Inverse folding.
């Protein structure tokens, strides 16, 4: 009996057969997921990769799995590892002592250090730092082993998360977990973790793998348009990396039960509850790629109760967060509550699997010190610094969770508040401050300086009209630019000029190999006067298609960082990067005839 | 050594200084041995530099003041 309904899959179900061949029996943890065979398939692929070949012995990995499950008082997962250890010849007494406290067992020093590391990573992942890795190296443990140990630890967390949510019966019903106390984790003496930028990763070397020929990277390019550092950082173990990509594809890509957006929202909210900046940043971006606004994504990371998600979707996030943050209080009642809101067991199961995968990723990222692909939202970092963990609070009683953070760093905040209250003087000062910003936002989209001048008045009037709707969640200048942008798009549409700045599939942006490959020499612009150069560049930027022009304007003319450019345009960072490169290459192509020629005549 | 296509796949991130040390090493080795990619890299950097240094699209002050004047006059008239 487990929390969710099951069906009989039978022995002809290949993943069961594979597991059985390897371990002698199909564990209840897998049977409890029988409503969702693809999840079992994915987990079996990962389990197989972790346990097969490697630098760490199979028994050592099972001991890691056992100790973590025992430390979490997870009798089902402990029993699963125990069965495996027994089949490898480990004595019952030894297993019992290991699950009580591994330090009472006589293990080689290197293995004991590795177990210490894995337990710390599993139980206090935010406090793992480079000094933990250095201690492993002192024991002669190499990068490959560290990756393997971190992935094994993450697998233990994957299993345990599912075990909490599914509550399957232990495979060995007669065995009892020995009464271990809270497992203490050895802390480095001089280590004080604020939980913020405590890491200076990446911790391990990652050999180059080709994004064009290494199959998992090709898959990622096709499904996501980029290769997250999460995967690049594991390139010393391509087999593990490949298994993870397969598992992620099986769990996250299908749309038939929960939608991709729902699943990404779970990943975002649970990563935020786990205070994992890396994953908050990546899933916030992926959601933008699926059409969610930047503000909404930030709000979900900060406090999903204040987002505009539907009530059932919020309840689903509460459920997923409880599954990791308060797992000892998790019970059948939590499942019953979701059922009462109309969720099916299949949907609940998929939510649990996604949550398990999330925790896998959160733990592994911290264990390897994997560097950010994108910045996480500032307000989230502020929140994290304050250590105000969302799940500890009653719903919606914390004013700091939304507006105050953004206000504190917006130089326009005071004037904006006055303008909201009706001060025309304050409003005048604001539009004077930002008139050039408005103008450039208009030029960027309209592609004409004359049209931009014409549109200025409209934008300013519209800003005044809507100032009551300005929420201090975002910066005033961002809000103003968004008004200018919307006006400009409206103008373009009226001119019957079909244009879209929205996210699109990345395929359309693929073919951008350059043609013109003449050398430009040094300082080719010296052949022209400053005003000639300016004219030339303005003309060529104006001639770019709108979606590239906007990005080039914000990034290279306005000098906004890529992250900020993406936020302003409600685009994902990968999309901005592709468009920026394409825009730059188009400009290069158009400027080449001038500058390559200048170089040639200069030589002459 | 990596191919030109592989170089190009990482090119955007390389320009933005967002590649790992291992990838950077591969790219720079390729750059040192492939003239076509070297010219591409060099001229793209120059393009970005020229655009950035010649930061344009300034709105003449008299024009912006006249627009702000018109807008504020309209708002004050509406309020009166
Ligand atoms: Zn080349």
């Amino acid at each position: 009996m487990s929390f969710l309904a099951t069906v009989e899959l039978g022995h002809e179900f290949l993943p069961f057969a594979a597991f059985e061949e390897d371990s002698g029996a199909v564990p209840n943890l897998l049977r409890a997921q029988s409503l969702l065979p693809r999840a079992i398939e994915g987990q079996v692929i990962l389990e197989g990769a972790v346990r097969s070949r490697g630098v760490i012995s199979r028994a050592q990995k099972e001991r890691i799995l056992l100790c973590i499950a025992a430390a979490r008082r997870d009798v089902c997962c402990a029993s699963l590892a125990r069965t495996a250890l027994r089949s490898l010849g480990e004595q019952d007494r030894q297993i019992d002592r290991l699950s009580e406290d591994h330090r009472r067992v006589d293990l080689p020093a290197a293995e004991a250090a590795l177990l210490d590391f894995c337990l710390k990573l599993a139980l206090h992942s935010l406090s793992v730092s480079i000094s933990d890795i250095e201690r492993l190296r002192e024991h002669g443990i190499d990068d490959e082993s560290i990756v393997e140990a971190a992935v094994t630890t993450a697998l233990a967390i994957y299993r345990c998360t599912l075990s909490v949510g599914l509550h399957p019966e232990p495979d060995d019903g007669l065995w009892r977990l020995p009464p271990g106390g809270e497992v203490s984790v050895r802390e480095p003496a001089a280590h004080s973790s604020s939980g913020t930028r405590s890491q200076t990763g990446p911790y391990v070397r990652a050999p180059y793998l080709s994004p064009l020929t290494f199959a998992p990277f090709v898959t990622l390019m096709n499904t996501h348009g980029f290769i997250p550092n999460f995967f690049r950082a594991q390139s010393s173990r391509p087999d593990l990396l490949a298994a993870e990509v397969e598992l992620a594809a099986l769990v996250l890509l299908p749309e038939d039960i929960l939608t991709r957006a729902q699943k990404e929202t779970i990943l975002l909210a649970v990563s935020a509850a786990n205070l994992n900046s890396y994953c908050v940043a990546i899933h916030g971006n992926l959601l933008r790629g699926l059409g969610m606004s930047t503000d909404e994504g930030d709000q979900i990371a900060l406090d999903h109760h204040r987002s505009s998600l539907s009530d059932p979707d919020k309840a689903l996030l509460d459920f997923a967060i409880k599954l990791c943050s308060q797992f000892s209080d998790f019970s059948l009642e939590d499942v019953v509550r979701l059922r009462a809101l109309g969720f099916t067991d299949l949907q609940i199961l998929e939510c649990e699997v996604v949550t398990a995968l999330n925790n896998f990723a959160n733990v592994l990222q911290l264990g390897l010190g994997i560097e950010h692909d994108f910045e996480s939202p500032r307000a989230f970092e502020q929140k994290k610094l304050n250590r105000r963990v969302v799940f500890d609070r009653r719903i919606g009683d914390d004013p700091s969770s939304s507006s105050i953070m953004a206000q504190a760093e917006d130089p326009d905040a005071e004037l904006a508040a006055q303008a909201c209250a009706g001060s025309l003087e304050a409003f005048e000062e604001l539009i004077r401050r930002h008139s050039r910003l408005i103008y450039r936002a208009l030029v960027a989209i309209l592609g004409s300086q004359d049209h931009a001048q014409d549109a200025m008045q409209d934008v300013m009037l519209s800003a005044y009209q809507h100032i009551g709707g300005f929420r201090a969640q975002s910066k005033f200048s961002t809000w103003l630019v968004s008004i200018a942008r919307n006006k400009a798009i409206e103008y373009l549409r009226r001119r019957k000029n079909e244009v879209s700045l929205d996210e699109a599939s990345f395929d359309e942006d693929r073919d951008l190999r350059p043609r013109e490959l003449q050398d430009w020499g040094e300082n080719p612009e010296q052949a022209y006067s400053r005003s000639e150069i300016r004219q030339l560049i303005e003309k060529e930027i104006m001639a770019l298609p709108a979606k590239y022009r906007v990005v080039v304007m914000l990034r290279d003319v306005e000098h906004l960082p890529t992250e900020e450019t993406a936020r302003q345009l409600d685009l994902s960072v990968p999309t901005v990067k592709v468009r920026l490169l394409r825009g730059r290459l188009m400009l290069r192509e158009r400027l080449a005839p001038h500058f390559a020629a200048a170089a040639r005549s200069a030589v002459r | 050594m990596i191919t030109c296509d592989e170089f190009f796949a990482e090119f955007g991130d390389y320009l933005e200084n967002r590649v790992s040390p291992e990838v950077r090493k591969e790219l720079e080795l390729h750059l040192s041995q492939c003239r076509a990619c070297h010219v591409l890299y060099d001229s793209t950097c120059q393009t970005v530099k020229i655009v950035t240094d010649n930061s344009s699209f300034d709105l003449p002050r008299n024009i912006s003041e006249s627009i702000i004047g018109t807008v504020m006059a309209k708002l004050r008239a509406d309020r009166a």
Remarks:
- Chain B touches chain A through 46 residues (CB under 8 Å).
- Residues 35-53 of chain B form the longest helix (19 residues).
